[in-house]
Amino acid sequence: MARDSADSALSLTDQRLVAALQWDGRVTAERAAQVLGLSPATVRRRLHALTADGTVRVVVSPVARPRGGGSAGALFLRIRVLRGKLDTIVAALAARDDIPFIDVTTAGDEIFAIARTEPGSRDPLVFRQLPSTQAVTALEGATILHVFRLTSEWRHRVLTGAECAALRPPAPNGTADRSGAGGLYGVDADGVEQSLIDALASDARLAAAALAERTGHPESTVRRRLAQLVGQERLITQVVVDPRRLGLPIEAKLLLRVPPDHLATAGQALADHLSVHGAFATSGPSNLHAAAYFTDLTALYGFLAHDLSGLGITHVETAIVSRSVKRTPAPVRPIAAR
Q1: What is the 3-state composition of the chain as percent helix, strand, coil, each rounded to the nearest 5?
Q2: pTM of the prediction?
Q3: Which residues contact residue 252 at a Cβ distance below 8 angstroms, ignoring those fewer than 6 apart?
Q4: Could you state, in chain order, the average pLDDT of each consecutive group of 10 residues for the chain (338 residues)?
């Protein structure tokens, strides 16, 4: 794949293929070619080039949005460490299965992370392990109360409306249009479904034949159960790609304070913004958090100076990400019905 460096933006054709995968992670080369006006051979060749070297990975989303946007149990962590110990702490956090997201900011001593936990529990990581580590100088933990936007729901805006509509999998039961992702929605998977989800966790584009070989189920069963999972929005895929390859080299984390009567409106406005790939309400003084991609610092300034106005926000703290350490999901487990 011709490129000046590992950080340079992909060609428009490749970016459009990435966007197609965001709408349907298991889209066939024939379907993508038909919608994007390419030949199937070109799509196969470009997809192979993008995935063979790890530039693009399609995985099962590590986080599912429960119906109504509530949180299944997660903490937003802000960790400050001694500068000489940053890499050591980051490596220890990255090795944990209960931490799917880790970012390091340009401050040089600051880590943002998301940790899975039981709602309301005294999580050992927060209450014992991190505080007892001498390299950690400060720790803030906020419970995620409501999800407005997940990373798996963000779409790179390089496709037309008609192309997006053609690529979007049919809504379950013929229901109305949706944002592009759903969740496990309180449904327990049986043994067959869970084995398929586990097998697809790190490569959601595995063919039915390969899944049948890995799981030991008949290929006909695999195809039928996959269709059910997709049709019921219970298999949510996520495209893992460095945003710099999409021409978006600036990622900002926003910690916002909003009065209660503006929280829902402001959160939804952020979720609807084209740049925002994550938005959620939390406990703590910064009760609304967001993450967004930008083409440059001028675009980030415009977002802060203009796009956030009128939302009732009383305080904004902005942190720029220097390195995304972990966006790799652990095996996904369904949310149990409550």
Answers
A1: 35, 25, 40
A2: 0.83
A3: 291, 292, 294, 300, 303, 318, 319, 320, 321
A4: 63 97 94 97 96 90 56 84 93 91 94 86 82 91 92 94 90 45 48 88 90 92 89 85 95 97 97 96 95 97 96 97 78 35
